[in-house]
């Protein structure tokens, strides 16, 4: 493998081959179908001066046609990463690839990684090894390869960067051809970093009823334990009009629930002269009756100045009264070592204000157990905070030092202590039942998915609390009223009220599971089922005709900006190409 395979490459032209045309040279490649005649030679297998050069030999008997393969996609991590995975699946399907749930039958594995914790990366690494053992082609995506592309176990493998997911088709095609491609660059406009790939790209929603919209990428913090910052970078927000357009399109496709996601939704807009409340009010105008909006994670510093407006928005009937605000620790000294840029009093101010102004609001939070330097006293402060607020949703994480982060170089808490603190906090969390007092209530819920055990449908009430309802297909995608008759630690069970009104978010039929969303004209006219030769915008394809002559075909794809866009390819051209190829084979025989 040439050394170039191990370097971080910036564009699709950086494919590992010293003989490949350079981008400058490609400007002068002939752009028409040019016949090239060769003289007949009496001796077979003797190459004449008119024969094609060594890189233009007869096409192999097993013709590799990118676009005809099956692809298995595995995504780890947050909803932002899941949204990226949906976009990549949609683009690949729009170009003819078959997205399969069966990893064994797939020709290529697209592994979309998470770098938050060691276990997630371990699963990612093991999946790479399993793919290689199974002789599968592999393309890597997500935060792990973006943050550390030079790791040994990533050498020689194709990588699609977190801001380059709109070019996944190119990377997959070149990988199928045997090349190693790495696209890790940033999207920029006049030198200014953009939020990422376009929002109007095709996607395959994991749940056709739920649209995940990334409102920005990156953040304004520099937390000492965070590896995601290395991958997602500084804050870059999408314009409000693009986000609203995406939401409207989703509702037109039968979506009834929208999740807004990012590394920090509270920081939205600070880089483009706007803010989160302004975006939310615009989105609320676009939400039809019977549909709901869920806001993603926000850090305390950036929500403090918008508390009044946020309370009004969270009280809106089409917005879940739910907010995910990570505290991480209730010790100010630990928060300082984490560089979290707030103190415990700030967190309490946010929670207390919202609880007062938004009755019944669900506050979810995160806690890290065993951060470097955390003392027993520090940890007890965290235990007291949980006891005080009795969070119904609590994400407990044992600290893992991530390579390259400042926290990895700090004095570590012994593993046994970290484990015990995680266990103690988990026991406290499971000591209370947050929903017992709601038995007997009549609640309005939105039904969006099936439970893991397939015994119930899953719905959420206005506070985004999980309610299990009977598996009646007529309920899916509908907002109905139920009577709560049972409560557990993480859920309630409800029975639909027979005489209650049923709300439908949209008269549009939801897309079928696996159906591609957001097909613009650009993608609707894309060739499919193996006809999409487009990774190289200027390379000529040598084809031998039945008469023994060679023609060089250069298909009409052109590069514009950061990605290749389709001009036109007809099925007739493919038929001609195949006819020439197979006819040439018969002539030789």
TrEMBL record:
Residues 205-436 form the Radical SAM core domain. Catalyzes the methylthiolation of N6-threonylcarbamoyladenosine (t(6)A), leading to the formation of 2-methylthio-N6-threonylcarbamoyladenosine (ms(2)t(6)A) at position 37 in tRNAs that read codons beginning with adenine. Residues 436-498 form the TRAM domain. It comes from Nyctibius grandis (Great potoo). Keywords: 4Fe-4S, Endoplasmic reticulum, Iron, Iron-sulfur, Membrane, Metal-binding, S-adenosyl-L-methionine, Transferase, Transmembrane, Transmembrane helix, tRNA processing. Its main location: endoplasmic reticulum. The chain crosses the membrane at residues 562-583. InterPro entries: Elp3/MiaA/NifB-like_rSAM (IPR006638), Methylthiotransferase (IPR005839), Methylthiotransferase_CS (IPR020612), Methylthiotransferase_N (IPR013848), Methylthiotransferase_N_sf (IPR038135), MiaB-like_arc_euk (IPR006466), rSAM (IPR007197), rSAM_horseshoe (IPR023404). It is a single-pass membrane protein. Residues 35-58 are annotated as: Disordered. Binds 1 or 2 [4Fe-4S] cluster. One cluster is coordinated with 3 cysteines and an exchangeable S-adenosyl-L-methionine. It is found in: Endoplasmic reticulum membrane; Membrane. GO terms for molecular function: 4 iron, 4 sulfur cluster binding; metal ion binding; tRNA (N(6)-L-threonylcarbamoyladenosine(37)-C(2))-methylthiotransferase activity. One of its GO terms (cellular component) is endoplasmic reticulum membrane. Its EC number is 2.8.4.5. Residues 69-177 form the MTTase N-terminal domain. It catalyses: N(6)-L-threonylcarbamoyladenosine(37) in tRNA + (sulfur carrier)-SH + AH2 + 2 S-adenosyl-L-methionine = 2-methylsulfanyl-N(6)-L-threonylcarbamoyladenosine(37) in tRNA + (sulfur carrier)-H + 5'-deoxyadenosine + L-methionine + A + S-adenosyl-L-homocysteine + 2 H(+). It is an enzyme of class 2 (transferase). PROSITE patterns: MTTASE_N (PS51449), MTTASE_RADICAL (PS01278), RADICAL_SAM (PS51918), TRAM (PS50926). Its cofactor is [4Fe-4S] cluster. Belongs to the methylthiotransferase family. CDKAL1 subfamily. This is tRNA-t(6)A37 methylthiotransferase.
């Amino acid at each position: 493998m040439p050394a170039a395979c191990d370097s971080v490459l910036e564009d699709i032209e950086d494919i590992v081959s010293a003989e490949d045309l350079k981008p400058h040279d490609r400007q002068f490649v002939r752009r028409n179908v040019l016949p090239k005649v060769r003289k007949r030679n009496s001796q077979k297998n003797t190459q004449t001066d008119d024969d094609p050069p060594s890189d233009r030999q007869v096409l192999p008997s097993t013709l590799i046609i990118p676009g005809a393969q099956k692809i298995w996609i595995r995504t780890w991590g947050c909803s932002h990463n899941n949204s990226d995975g949906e976009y990549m699946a949609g683009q690949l399907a729009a170009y003819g690839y078959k997205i399969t749930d069966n990893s064994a039958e797939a020709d290529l594995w697209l592994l979309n990684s998470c770098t938050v914790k060691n276990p997630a990366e371990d699963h990612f690494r093991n999946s790479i090894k399993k793919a290689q053992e199974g002789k599968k082609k592999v393309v890597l995506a997500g935060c792990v390869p973006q943050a550390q592309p030079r790791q040994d176990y990533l050498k020689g493998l194709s990588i699609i960067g977190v801001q380059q997911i709109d070019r996944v088709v190119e990377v997959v095609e070149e990988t199928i051809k045997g090349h190693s491609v790495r696209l890790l660059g940033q999207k920029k406009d006049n030198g200014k970093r953009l939020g990422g790939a376009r929002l109007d790209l095709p996607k395959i929603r994991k749940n056709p009823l739920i649209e995940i919209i990334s409102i920005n990428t990156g953040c304004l913090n520099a937390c000492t334990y965070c590896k995601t910052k290395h991958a997602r970078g500084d804050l870059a927000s999408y314009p409000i009009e693009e986000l609203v357009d995406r939401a409207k399109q989703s509702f037109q496709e039968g979506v009834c629930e929208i999740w807004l996601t990012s590394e920090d939704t509270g920081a939205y807009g600070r880089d483009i002269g706007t803010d989160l409340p302004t975006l939310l009010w615009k989105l609320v105008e676009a939400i039809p009756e019977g549909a709901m909006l869920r806001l993603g994670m926000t850090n305390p510093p950036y929500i403090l100045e918008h508390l009044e407006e946020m309370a009004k928005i969270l009280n809106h009937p089409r917005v879940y009264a739910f907010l995910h605000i990570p505290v991480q620790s209730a010790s100010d000294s630990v928060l300082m070592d984490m560089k979290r840029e707030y103190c415990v009093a700030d967190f309490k101010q946010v929670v207390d204000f919202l609880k007062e102004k938004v009755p019944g609001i669900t506050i979810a939070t995160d806690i890290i157990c065993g951060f470097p330097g955390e003392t027993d006293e520090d940890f007890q402060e965290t235990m007291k905070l949980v006891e005080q607020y009795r969070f119904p949703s609590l994400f407990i994480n044992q600290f893992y030092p991530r390579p390259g982060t400042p926290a990895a170089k700090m004095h570590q808490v012994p593993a046994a202590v970290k484990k015990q603190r995680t266990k103690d906090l988990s026991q406290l969390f499971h000591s209370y039942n947050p929903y017992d007092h709601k038995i007997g209530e009549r609640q309005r819920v939105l039904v969006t998915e099936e439970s893991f055990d397939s015994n119930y449908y899953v719905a959420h009430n206005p506070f985004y609390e999980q309610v299990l309802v009977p598996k009646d297909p007529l309920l899916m995608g509908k907002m109905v009223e139920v009577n709560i008759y049972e409560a557990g630690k993480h859920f309630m069970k409800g029975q639909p009220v027979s005489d209650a009104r049923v709300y439908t978010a949209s008269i549009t039929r939801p897309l079928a599971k696996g159906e591609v969303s957001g097909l613009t004209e650009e993608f609707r006219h894309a060739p499919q089922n193996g006809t999409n030769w487009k990774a190289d915008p200027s390379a000529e394809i040598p084809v031998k005709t039945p008469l023994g002559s060679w023609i060089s075909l250069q298909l009409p794809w052109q590069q514009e900006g950061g990605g290749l866009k389709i001009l036109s390819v007809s099925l007739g051209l493919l038929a001609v190409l195949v006819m020439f190829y197979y006819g040439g084979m018969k002539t030789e025989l």
